């Protein structure tokens, strides 16, 4: 096999085994195929410098890497950049092609071959193709491409042994029609065939890398940028794809599948909105009630409060000699607010873990069924008014379950600008389910009018903040371009595998971050800074017309939102005071877990802005409501 | 020439001009600039869903307004 020499093999140390990348469009069954082709799961990790998880495993003596689904090798999105980097660093690829979507997927195949990447094609979903009345002449396709083509049905393991046997046969034609264009590039350029192809397609990272090597001396327009002719290259490749599809594929007449029609009803507002509302209710019930309240209530209230925490506290007290210098250590390890070995573990294992698993199961199911992109289509109209496109619906839905989780899903939302807007909205105006339970209880005591008022205030804040950010943030709103995968009955095996992968990746990242945060907050608590904050808050609580005790609630709210809500039940307040208090704690800063994830997903500046912004929003809106209600004397 | 936002559902069209560079490249790659496509759904004030060979793509309203289309006279492929 001729391994193309790549300078940026950051994915592979020099003594590592051969690397095979699994590449294909989204929803073509890549991860299922990955699971059945690999010997065992090696490791799950986030791709360096990003938040997209990648999975690697061994197959024979080689290492196989799953990549994010893409329609081509380029740099349009974070997922595409990662796939591009992994492909450039790989020795060979398994290109997974959806047999029902040959005309769409062969573009990527021909691009890989133009790049000279040794390839084996896995022609997947052969069962669905048959059901659709699509016949593919596999031999003709193999001859035309000049690389091995193996028909597979990943979900039943059909064709997987054959695919494994063909791995060493991965190859690429010695030359492809794109070579005609190589003349346009400077003669003395130091670039591989893969890079030359990407240069012609005007791929920015490749252009920059090669230019840095060439040390272009004259300040004029770079010869590389001039040589780029992406559209022509793409058009010519599409022509080859069309010709190829016409010779190898025969499409019979079949009825449109029932699932296709289900997909349509999801996107039409008249039918889609009730269905979406139903789904939302179900998600809220599963994540917000069953898991966040019942299951977490059990893990926190019983497993941790009654068994784990007392046992650890006893052990620590026994192990540490009761002398003066061990006192701070003991405090850091087992204090009641955020002890490293007690409450911190309780949060991560007892609270987050069940939520994370439940959440990934729900999202995985919606993803596998092809529902998410259709929800995005349905809500695009409304969300475009607050600077977002339809894709932002996912974080907002999830946010009602758990804001921390939702911050993670903002990575699905197009551009940086939109991720920032959706994270800000989540941090500000979306109450999490842990809090909603308590808030609903308090509002129920006040009556329906207050409940409606509460919703109204939140929606108003959501709208105003969205419009404000849309107007002030630089850049343009990202248009929705969404390829809609087929609607299908979700495959449990696939969902469980994805949930496992994502949960592991999440814990690996969140646990150390949370431990660090816990130590810092405990230290501040020990030296008395937290008390100083409560005292500092007195003028603010006065402004809201609330008693000084509310300051303590706010401090609790700095750590966890539902603590603040729960604290509200303990102080005697009038109806308007309760209302003001609830508005304030809803808009107040996101919980520590959310902030940690925000720091992780965005950057320190955005996180700080969101944090400070929520102080302003909470007290601004709270003060206004208090004045309107006449709470302030 | 009319815009994609004005096409009625079920109508067969060709996307003649997509001014946005990114959108054009992505549609080209998916095969939606190869000729005839079906306007599958027009969501009122919302996205337009195009269909081609069983593959569907949704385009936001603002983008659809910029896209110029011609009614297709092609024979079906």
Automatic annotation (TrEMBL), chain A:
<feature type="transmembrane region" description="Helical">
    <location>
        <begin position="420"/>
        <end position="442"/>
    </location>
</feature>
<dbReference type="Pfam" id="PF07664">
    <property type="entry name" value="FeoB_C"/>
</dbReference>
<feature type="transmembrane region" description="Helical">
    <location>
        <begin position="275"/>
        <end position="295"/>
    </location>
</feature>
<dbReference type="GO" id="GO:0005886">
    <property type="term" value="C:plasma membrane"/>
</dbReference>
<dbReference type="GO" id="GO:0015093">
    <property type="term" value="F:ferrous iron transmembrane transporter activity"/>
</dbReference>
<feature type="binding site">
    <location>
        <position position="36"/>
    </location>
    <ligand>
        <name>Mg(2+)</name>
    </ligand>
</feature>
<keyword id="KW-1003">Cell membrane</keyword>
<keyword id="KW-1133">Transmembrane helix</keyword>
<keyword id="KW-0812">Transmembrane</keyword>
<dbReference type="InterPro" id="IPR006073">
    <property type="entry name" value="GTP-bd"/>
</dbReference>
<dbReference type="InterPro" id="IPR050860">
    <property type="entry name" value="FeoB_GTPase"/>
</dbReference>
<feature type="transmembrane region" description="Helical">
    <location>
        <begin position="608"/>
        <end position="632"/>
    </location>
</feature>
<keyword id="KW-0460">Magnesium</keyword>
<keyword id="KW-0410">Iron transport</keyword>
<keyword id="KW-0342">GTP-binding</keyword>
<feature type="transmembrane region" description="Helical">
    <location>
        <begin position="386"/>
        <end position="408"/>
    </location>
</feature>
<dbReference type="GO" id="GO:0046872">
    <property type="term" value="F:metal ion binding"/>
</dbReference>
<dbReference type="Pfam" id="PF02421">
    <property type="entry name" value="FeoB_N"/>
</dbReference>
<dbReference type="InterPro" id="IPR030389">
    <property type="entry name" value="G_FEOB_dom"/>
</dbReference>
<feature type="domain" description="FeoB-type G">
    <location>
        <begin position="17"/>
        <end position="173"/>
    </location>
</feature>
<dbReference type="Pfam" id="PF07670">
    <property type="entry name" value="Gate"/>
</dbReference>
<feature type="transmembrane region" description="Helical">
    <location>
        <begin position="448"/>
        <end position="469"/>
    </location>
</feature>
<feature type="binding site">
    <location>
        <begin position="124"/>
        <end position="127"/>
    </location>
    <ligand>
        <name>GTP</name>
    </ligand>
</feature>
<feature type="transmembrane region" description="Helical">
    <location>
        <begin position="510"/>
        <end position="534"/>
    </location>
</feature>
<feature type="binding site">
    <location>
        <begin position="49"/>
        <end position="53"/>
    </location>
    <ligand>
        <name>GTP</name>
    </ligand>
</feature>
<protein>
    <recommendedName>
        <fullName>Ferrous iron transport protein B</fullName>
    </recommendedName>
</protein>
<keyword id="KW-0408">Iron</keyword>
<keyword id="KW-0406">Ion transport</keyword>
<dbReference type="InterPro" id="IPR011642">
    <property type="entry name" value="Gate_dom"/>
</dbReference>
<feature type="binding site">
    <location>
        <begin position="24"/>
        <end position="31"/>
    </location>
    <ligand>
        <name>GTP</name>
    </ligand>
</feature>
<keyword id="KW-0813">Transport</keyword>
<keyword id="KW-0472">Membrane</keyword>
<keyword id="KW-0479">Metal-binding</keyword>
<keyword id="KW-0547">Nucleotide-binding</keyword>
<dbReference type="InterPro" id="IPR003373">
    <property type="entry name" value="Fe2_transport_prot-B"/>
</dbReference>
<feature type="binding site">
    <location>
        <begin position="66"/>
        <end position="69"/>
    </location>
    <ligand>
        <name>GTP</name>
    </ligand>
</feature>
<feature type="transmembrane region" description="Helical">
    <location>
        <begin position="571"/>
        <end position="596"/>
    </location>
</feature>
<dbReference type="InterPro" id="IPR027417">
    <property type="entry name" value="P-loop_NTPase"/>
</dbReference>
<dbReference type="InterPro" id="IPR011640">
    <property type="entry name" value="Fe2_transport_prot_B_C"/>
</dbReference>
<dbReference type="GO" id="GO:0005525">
    <property type="term" value="F:GTP binding"/>
</dbReference>
<feature type="transmembrane region" description="Helical">
    <location>
        <begin position="338"/>
        <end position="366"/>
    </location>
</feature>
<feature type="transmembrane region" description="Helical">
    <location>
        <begin position="540"/>
        <end position="559"/>
    </location>
</feature>
